[in-house]
Amino acid sequence: MPTRSTIMDTNSFRAEHADALDDVTRELTAKREALLGASYRLFYRNPVHVVRGQGAYLWDASGRKYLDVYNNVPSVGHAHPAVVAAVSAQMATLNTHTRYLHGSVLAYAEDLLSTLPGELDQIMFMCTGSEANDLAIRVARAYTGGTGIILTSEAYHGNTELTSAHSPALGSSQPLDPAARLVSPPDGYRADWAADGSVGQWFAARVQEQIDAMREQGVPFAGLLIDSVFSSDGVFTGEPGMLAPAFDVVHRNGGVVIADEVQPGFARTGDAFWGFGRHGVVPDIVTMGKPMGAGMPISGMAAKREVLEAFSLKVPYFNTFGGNPVSIAAAQAVLDTIRGEALQERARTVGAELRASLTALADRFDVIGDVRGAGQFTGLELVTSRSTKQPATALALDVIEGMRERGVLTSVAGPSGNILKLRPTLAFQSGDIDWLMESLTDALVQALETRP
Question: What pTM does this model have?
Answer without folding.
Answer: 0.94
